[in-house]
Structure formats: C-alpha cells, structure tokens
From TrEMBL:
Record-annotated membrane-spanning stretches: 21-40
Membrane topology of this protein: Single-pass membrane protein
Organism: Microvirga puerhi
Domain of life the protein comes from: Bacteria
PANTHER family: INNER MEMBRANE PROTEIN, PUTATIVE MEMBRANE PROTEIN YPFJ
Protein location: Membrane
Keywords: Membrane, Transmembrane, Transmembrane helix
Pfam families: Zn_peptidase
Protein name, per record: Neutral zinc metallopeptidase
Amino acid sequence: MRWEDFRTSSNVEDRRGIPGGAGGLGLGTIVVLGLIGWALGIDPRILISGAEMMSGGDSGYQQQQGRQGTPQDEMGRFASAILGNTEDVWTAVLPQQANRQYKPPKLVLFSGATRSGCGAAQSAMGPFYCPLDQTVYLDLSFFQEMQQRFRAGGDFAYAYVIAHEVGHHVENQLDILPRVQARQQEVGATERNQLSVRVELMADCLAGVWAHHSNERWNSLEQGDIEKAINAAQAIGDDRLQQQSQGRVVPDSFTHGSSEQRVRWLTTGLKTGQIQACDTFRASRL
C-alpha cells in the first residue's frame, strides 16, 4: 500500500509509555476476561467494565494527556497517515453521499492500558471506537498479533482495521450508533448480538468505501493488497475465532459476523464506493 505520501493527521494523541489502567483490576484479570470474551463471543469490554464496577473501581473518565501530533516511529506515522487519509476521503464523500459534514475522530495510541470516555481501554480488547468521546483507541501491538496469531499481516490489512473503527465514527455521524444502542437496551441477548453484527458489518463495508475512494484519488492500492485485507477479514470472523478457541460455533453469540459475511461486506464497499450500499439494517441477507 502506498501510504507514505498520505497527509498525516493532527488528530493523533500518543499515550504509549504513559501508565493507565482499568480501575482496581489487575492486568492478569483483564487478560483472562479478554480471553473469555473472545472464547464466548462476548465483547471483552462488557466483561471488563462489569468487573470494574463489581470491584468498586472508578468508572469515571479521567483524562490522560499524551503527545500530540505525528509520531516519529514508523508504525505511529503509518497510523497517523491512514487516519489522515480517512479524513480526506470522508470529508469529501460524506457530504456528497449523505449530506452530512464530516467531523474527524481522534486517534489515541496506547500501550497496555489507558482510559477512554467509554471506560477502560485494554490491549486485550483490540482496537475500538468510543462514541462518547468520538475517539479510536489502538494499541499498535494488535498488528503484531494479526501477523503472528491470525497470519493476516500487511499494510492494507492494518489500514483496514483502522478504517473499520473510523467506519464506526461515520455510523455515529449518521446517527446510527445512538439508535442501535438505544434499541439494544430494550431487547434480549440474541437480538442485541444481531444488532451488533449489523453495526460491525456496516463498518467493514464503510472501510471498503474508504479504500475505494482512496485508491481512485491517490492510486494507493498495490497488487496483493486487497487479498491481504480479505485474509484479515476472514481471520477475525466470529465463526473462525470461536472454532479456534472453543472447538464449536455458536451463531447466536456472534457480535461481529462470520468470516464470509465480513469479506462480503468489505468487498461490497470496495466495489461500489457507496455508503448506501453498506446499509446492513435494510439488507435482506447479512
């Protein structure tokens, strides 16, 4: 992927090396809860936040200040460049296709643990977007895990991860996330998970929309890039993760979608470049 010529974003905060954590929970507890979450198909953030409340930990958001601006190391510059390119794409595409002005999210890089507007941010959770502070949280070691655990490396595969989280921000800008979260408070676990799957698959598709327009304008994709992103989407499907961790697949517990679904929606965005094509809530087939 030709990312070196992308404009780097000014909306990056680097907290790597700054101590942070989740209330009174120990690191061992957090890691265990993270593994349990992946095994059962439950968002690890739910387990960790619940344990934090049970332990009497401070659930309030305590602002941590990191270094502002473009990081100097290669992976930090990469993340900043991908974020900058998503800003350039969505600033043009969102008004054009959805008649909404795009307000970019912030990206916080951290190592191990930090605080977010949604509570604890831990490496065990993987990258995530917090709609309350409109920020993407990313421990760059996740890219090493993608390579070593999932055999899903490559610049475009890593960019897809960042663009997926930015996709959640686009959903938030479109008022989709607030409506879904309100509905999730009214329904049972199975339907709650189904709503989560629709949100995640839409973010996959929106990541594809970003890549479509980035390539169209900057010729950013190289041979083999799309295959690497598809490999990443396959590797982190709920069915594959559950099969690897517990030897069986429980579709009702899916929160992100199957490997086939994630690949199909990512490629839908790549091929069409259209936000409307990503409407998983009106789709008859997920």
